[in-house]
Design brief:
Strand content: under 5%
Order of helices and strands: EEHHHHH
Helix content: 55-70%
Strand order of the largest sheet: 1-2
Number of strands: 2
Number of domains: 2
Length: 111
């Protein structure tokens, strides 16, 4: 997901450093101890919340995010690739609709 000179960043420290640099470059306050500061975890929280709002069920949300299943689910649930793709498609379509609405508002505000 994150790259440096077109190569994937694979270390946790590299991702954290790159995210911080991207925030600074974009003028976004970075850091959990800063007023209105963002941290990398905020992306994960927003993504998981948005998947919920898009109607993606908890099991698929957890599997997509790499969270371990709990209780008997860890023994009996095995998601097929097709169901994970369908869950991501559901999220992507929801997200695309939200983005289109924001862009439409911005274009109409400028008119």
């Amino acid at each position: 997901m994150f790259t440096y000179h077109r190569k994937p960043i694979t270390s946790d420290s590299g991702v954290k450093k790159s995210f911080k640099s991207a925030c600074v470059d974009a003028g976004i306050t970075y850091g959990m101890n800063e007023k209105d500061g963002v941290i990398f975890r905020d992306i994960r929280r927003t993504f998981k919340t948005d998947m919920l709002n898009a109607g993606v069920d908890k099991t698929h949300r957890d599997m997509i995010m790499g969270h371990s299943l709990q209780g008997m689910d860890k023994h009996y649930l095995v998601a097929m690739e097709e169901s994970l793709i369908a869950a991501m498609d559901r999220y992507t379509n929801w997200s695309d609709e939200k983005i289109a609405k924001v862009l439409d508002k911005a274009v109409n505000a400028d008119a």
